[in-house]
Each structure stands twice: as structure tokens, then as C-alpha cells.
Amino acid sequence: MKLTVNPGNPLRGDIRLPGDKSISHRAALFSALAHGESVIENFLVAGVTKAMLHALTEVGVEWSLTGPTLKVKGKGLNGLLPPANTIHCGNSGTTLRLLAGALSAANISCTLSGSNALCQRPMLRIVEPLQRVGAVITATSTGTAPMKLKRRLTNQPLSGKTHILPIASAQVKTCLLLAGLNANEVIVVDEPALSRDHTEKMLSTMGIHLVESFINERHQVQMSPLAGNNLSPLRITIPGDFSSASFLIVAALITPGSEITIRKVGLNPTRTGLLSILTLMGAHIDISNEHFSGMEPVGDLRIRHSKLHGIEVSGSLVVKMIDEFPVFAIAAAFAEGETLVTQAEELRYKESDRISTICTQLKRIGVVVEERCDGFLIRGDNNPTGGEVNPNGDHRLAMAFAVSGLGSRNQITIHDAGIFNESYPRFVEDLIDLGADIAYE
Ligand code: S3P
Questions:
Q1: Which residues, in sequence order, are CB contacts of 255 under 8 Å at separation 6+?
Q2: Other CB atoms closer than 10 Å to residue 207's CB: what's the count?
Q3: The pTM is what?
Q4: 97 CA to centre of ligand 1 in angstroms
Q5: If pLDDT is split at 50, 70 and 90, which confidence band does 134 have?
Q6: Is 316 helix (H, G, I), strand (E, B) or coil?
Q7: What's phi and psi for 199, nearest 5 deg?
Q8: d(CA 54, CA 65)
Q9: 168 CA distance to ligand 1 centroid (A)?
Q10: Which stretches within 210-366 are classed as H helix?
Q11: Secondary structure in 3-state letters for 148-198
């Protein structure tokens, strides 16, 4: 699909977004591990979550979708079946990494694979700690998927361990906690900064006792032995996806005359680093109607066109906005002065090398940018001129550059843009409903 975005039209209106991607993945998988039927409202139906549902079918779990309502018949950790085929996780790193942990605990043999892009992403960060607790799992010689998991013949539980993570990653943390559901000792996951904590919240909702502690920025979570035997089913409504909202937030901020309201968005503080940084850059964003949906904080956001100025981002803020850098770079391109991102090397291991893709594609629309090994510097003194970009198979890059076209000096064309269906299938419709001038073919 090719998208052509014309600048000029202000965005106006009120919108509610599909469910959060991270929470949807967890809700589907954790429900499968519970005993009994779970009912999940506002589930995200998109490319990446379909990969998770497909994987659940492969291991014998029944589920049904009616609109955005997902019902899952939990089989319990010991009820999952070895799949007849390789489990294809598509482009979904979350599906692959979370399944590796859960299926290690379930002790079944399988092969986990995915798209070419997914098979280039680093997997030793989960394979090595899983091996240390006794899982028989291997990656390719380059440390990537396909990964092979072999049933342990003795059917012994895995062992517990203290895992000290070199980088804060919710996928790695969740993978290890899921493996720990079948460990015969306490398992501890220690991360340099608190990554998104949807797993901790959801496992607690399902009856698991977790102990969390903080030492300065470090975060530690402990789980008791054999905690996975008694997971209760879920009944939750998933908040709107903050990461999808971030595209609309930046769209309204950079498009003169805009004022939009996004209702019932997830506002978990481990996710909303972008809100804090945009506010420091001068954004007019009001939060109202704050409440909880289960254990997850939710609220409404009102965003008005604003004059932004450049800023520096580094340290523990990086993990709190880890998926938002593509659209943050667009905000920076429209801000006055310099924006510097450092200590964000992890961006190189996402759906694309996001440092490189952000920089090469920003240059194509006339933005002055310098690539750094662990980030980038953007000089935002003039709005982008316009031009043609290629998101390099990365859904968030496709959406970020579509947003840039709303405020640029000339139209922006995004080639191979259909990849946004991976996480936010209504993206173009929602922008058009809010007033954007977008053509697609
Ligand atoms: C996710 C964690 C993050 C994020 C990804 C979803 C999750 O990945 O980038 O989109 O649901 O746990 P990392 O844990 O690799 O940083």
C-alpha cells in the first residue's frame, strides 16, 4: 500500500483506540495457561496479535473472537500440546519471546520461527537464561530464530535463578517469569530500570503473589516456586493502546488548528515517557477522567496544536518510551532547536534498526539529522520539506512518517505502508475521521 499525506487539514474530534498490544498478547497467552474460560474485552485484533492466537491454536488452545471480545479456554500449564508444525510468529517479537518462556515451562517440543525480519533479531537474551534454568532450547549459530525447544525427558520442573538483565526489557523479563511458573525454586528477575510492568499486574490479577522491590533505578521481581499451577482466568477490558495514541498525539501537536481527545487510553507510567517529554517540550496535553481498568491506569487525553522546542532524552526515560522514538523523532523535526537522543542503542534491535531507519528516512524529507551509535541528533529549525520514504518493513516507521506529512511543507508519500496493520489496522481510517487528507492505493 502507498499512502500520500497532504498537509494542511487540522485534526478535530474524539476517538477511542483498540486495545493495547502488549496487554493483548499477555491476556491471550496467560489465559491459555489458566484453568477455565477467560473473557477479554477490547482485545487488539491486528497482525501481531493474530500471530499469538495462531500459536495458541497450534498448541491445542481453543479461543473465539467476536469483534474485539476474545474468549480463551485455558488448558493450564500442563495441558498444552506439542504443535504438529513450526510455530510461525510472523513479525511479532513479543509472540516469539513470550512463547519461548511459556512453552519451556509447559515442557513441550516445538520450533519457533517467524518472518525474515524477526529471524534477524537477537534471541540469545532469552535462550541463554532459559538454558541456565534447564530448558533445552537452541537458537541458530547467529543467535536468532528459528529456535528449537526440546521436551525434557525427566519432566522435572525448571530451576529457579536470579536473572540479572543487562538491559531493561519487558519481553525478556516476561519470558523468564513465564518459564519460572514451573520452577521448583524462587525466581528473581532484576532489571536496570523498570520496563513495562503489564506482566506483573496481570499475573497478580490471576492470583500469583509477586514481590517487587526497587534499589535506586533498578527493579527486582520475585515469584514463588511452582506458581503456575493455579492461575485463575481473566475478566478484563484492555485499555486503548498508548503506543497507537502516540501517533495521534504527535499528529495533533504538529498540525496547526488541531484539537483532539483520545478516550480510555492506557496511562501506565512505565509506558508514558513520551507524554512527559512532550510536555517538557511545550506540548498542550490535558489528562482527565483518570481511573483504573483492573490494575491498569486509564484516562482521556486532550491534545492541542503546540509550539515545541528541542530536548535531550537519555537514561531510564528511554525504556518508558521505547516504542515511541519513531514518532518522537517526527515531533523533534517540528520542534525549534536541537533534540538529542542518547543511551538508546536498543532501538537498533526493534522491527528495524530504528536509529538507522529514522535517520535515513528523515533526511529524505529534508530534515537535518545526525546518526549516533546510541541515538540521534535532530535540528528541527525548519519543518520537513516533504518527499518519499520507505519504512523498511517497520509498522511504527510507516505511521510516524504518515504523521509527518500532516504538518510538512509539501506532501509525503510512504511506500510499503500497509505494514501499519501489524499493530494499528484503523490507523488511516482514524486519521481520516479526524480530518486528515490522506490518499491510499
Ligand atoms: C514489549 C516490550 C518492548 C517493546 C515491544 C513490546 C512487550 O520490547 O518494544 O513492542 O510487550 O513486552 P523489549 O522488551 O524488547 O524492549
A1: 7, 9, 10, 11, 305, 406, 407
A2: 12
A3: 0.98
A4: 10
A5: very high
A6: coil
A7: -65, -50
A8: 12
A9: 10
A10: 242-254, 273-280, 317-320, 325-334, 354-364
A11: EEECCCCCCCECCCEEECCCCCHHHHHHHHHHHCCECCCEEEEECCCCCCH
